Structures are given as structure tokens and as C-alpha cells.
Amino acid sequence: MERKARPLRYKKNISAREKFKAYENVFDQATLRVLFKLSSQGYFDELQGAIKIGKEANVFFAIKGKKKVVVKIYRKSANFKKMYDYMAPDPRYIGLKRNKMNIISTWAKKEYRNLLKARSAGVKVPTPYAVYQNVLVMEFIGDKEPAPQLNKVKPDEPKQFYETLIKYLKKLYLNAKLVHADLSEFNILNDNGKPVIIDLSHAVDVRYPNVKALLKRDLDNLARFFKKLNVEEKEVKWIQKN
Ligand SMILES: Nc1ncnc2c1ncn2[C@@H]1O[C@H](COP(=O)(O)OP(=O)(O)OP(=O)(O)O)[C@@H](O)[C@H]1O
Ligand SMILES: [Mg+2]
Predict the structure, then answer these.
(1) pLDDT at position 223, please?
(2) Assigned CATH for 158-241
(3) Which of 55, 66, 123, 167 is most open to solvent, judged by the fewest CB atoms within 10 Å of its CB?
């Protein structure tokens, strides 16, 4: 249920409040409270720079001790009707309520759940650490800087990179029972020559209507991208196995 926004109250310490002060004009009060809560639970110390300010989500990196984590914040202005239409046929979301905050938080939870499943199936994705309301905290992929998207930095060994991705899609489909459904060079990071698949918010259950067409589209996007790097399309047989 959506709760009425209350004024921000930071009982515990002033410095914690200072940490989020800079964001008071960026986020609504409820989101600030969620960030504060996750931070007091120890998931991160403070937000640093923005990695990407997107249409649906803002992606920040945050400091946690000496490490970095990524904080993905779904905007309250996200197209929740589209999210609803997208989730409604997924058997995991039968009976989903049309309330805006419920849809956005279910969307964030869905990404968290998909990341966990993918990870357990042996697919390299950022490890999810926490999700609460519209905020997801996950592993930071990169060194000093975030790993670049595949469209920005092409791999030195494209054939191997492509084959690893196909192997990941197979594990995702047969073991995690998921299809990414929004896979392209924009949602793959090139982490020192190794692929990491990101942005699993769209990923659907294999029982989703027309799931094979969605999987085919992901595979076609990969084939199209790697063809430009002179890698031949790989025939995929496991698509029939389900
Ligand atoms: N875990 C991560 N580590 C490093 N960089 C990341 C991570 N997650 C996201 N990014 C960066 O932030 C960008 C946006 O992230 P993502 O693709 O998840 O969001 P989006 O496309 O805005 O989301 P959506 O399509 O769900 O609205 C990515 O392209 C990538 O550059
Ligand atoms: Mg994306």
C-alpha cells in the first residue's frame, strides 16, 4: 500500500542526514527515506556519482566501506502502465494490483529476484544485495570506473565473448527458467573482456506467452552485433528443449 509521505526525520544522527541532504531536490521524500533506511541497514554508506539518469531508473554508485555498490532507483514517474502490461501475463504476477507504487516496487523486486535466479544458474550478473520499495542495491561491476557497455568497448576476443553469452542464455533459459527479453549490446557490460549481463528488470518466466519469440529476439540481437565483428551466428538447439 502506498503510504502518505511524512516529513523526513532522522532521529539517529545528524551526519547521516547530511549525507542525503544534497539529494533532497532530486528524490521525493519517500525515496529519501528508503535510501536512508537501506543505508542505516549497512547496504551502503553514501551515494556518490550518477552512472546513468534514465527514463525509468537512475543508477548511482555508492560507497560501502572501501567498496562500491550500485543503487538503482526506479523513478516514481516511470511508465507504470507499461510495467503492469508487461508483468500481467507473467504467471509469477497473477493478481498484480494496478496501484502505481505497488507496480513500481514489484518491478524492482522482480529485477532483484531475476538477478538472484540468474546468478544461481551460473550466469554472470551483478549480485543483488537488497531491494526495498523502488530501490535496488547490487554489486558494482568494474574497477575504478564502471565497466563499459558492450556497444562502447568491443571485446578483443569477440568469438569467445559471444560464445560465453550464448552459454549464459542457455543457463538462463534451461536452469533459471527465464528469458532476458531486453538483451542487446546496451545491457551487456564488458568487464575486462568478460561479459556481464545487466538490467534483468524485463526478464520473464519461461511460461510467458510467446517466450520463444522473445528469446529469439535476444539471440538475433546478439547475432547482429557480433556479425559486425566478423563472428558467425551460432546455431542454438536448446531452444526447443522446453
Ligand atoms: N551493476 C552495475 N555495475 C556497473 N554499472 C552498472 C550496473 N548496473 C547498471 N550499470 C550502468 O548503468 C546503466 C543503466 O543501467 P540499467 O541498464 O540497469 O538501467 P536502465 O536501462 O536505465 O534501466 P531500465 O531499462 O530498467 O529502465 C547501464 O547501462 C550501465 O552502464
Ligand atoms: Mg538498460
Answers:
(1) 98
(2) 1.10.510.10
(3) 66
